[in-house]
Amino acid sequence: xxxxxxxxxxxxxxxxxxxxxxxxxxxxxxxxxxxxxxxxxxxxxxxxxxxxxxxxxxxxxxxxxxxxxxxxxxxxxxxxxxxxxxxxxxxxxxxxxxxxxxxxxxxxxxxxxxxxxxxxxxxxxxxxxxxxxxxxxxxxxxxxxxxxxxxxxxxxxxxxxxxxxxxxxxxxxxxxxxxxxxxxxxxxxxxxxxxxxxxxxxxxxxxxxxxxxxxxxxxxxxxxxxxxxxxxxxxxxxxxxxxxxxxxxxxxxxxxxxxxxxxxxxxxxxxxxxxxxxxxxxxxxxxxxxxxxxxxxxxxxxxxxxxxxxxxxxxxxxxxxxxxxxxxx
Length: 329
Known about the structure:
By secondary structure, the protein is mainly alpha-helical. The chain is about 75% helix and about 5% strand.
């Protein structure tokens, strides 16, 4: 768009987060409370996982490094996504400046990209551990996993960075209503003036690479793992390998399947979702995995269960001792 056309337009400098457009006002406080509970539970659950990793030497292994990274990423995503929508529904404070919206959009896509890369790293770790068990200690150790994780955190900035640069070059001159619970590319692009076909094509291509490339490798790795488990003659080893993989498959499934469903629904001519249904599914795949990831790890990972059991046992033992000491005084 030329500079003359830009100056002739009333450029939008502030957006308003609408959330669910079909929601009645009497349910605003209830939804805000639900989002607040999800946020607090997610942060506390993932922080407990981070603390467990930090203080327990037996958890400082390659697989748990990816768990730590995923927990930090989940905390980051919920912290970026939820406070504003809670404020919008509780205090009717949905206004957000252009640059604040741009920053929120950037980090929403950053943590989404990061989660995808972390899950691919998890798949690499399990693939090497099960398909090449004798070489695993050499191929994958804490140093290697730490560098792979660091690479994920750094490379995850590329796709959102491209998207953010594109958004700064767009002009927003019409409606300022973000029909979403947070700022994202699709919502902002729909409000842009002028022809942004090229930007949309680039955004779609980058998003497809970020989502489908790791997902394709994950599918390949778990198929290879399944074949390796079937071929093994050690039933106990097979059961342990399957149990470990089942944990990660649960996390990967609840992350990818709803996301792929939303992305490919527009290309299904006989299946349509209205905006409220689409937002519900989007919020589900954005918030449900960070909420349940700690629970899955706590219940499915023996080392973490034993650590938590030890903590609670010590706490219960200390309580009666302090009461006895108080009575004796």
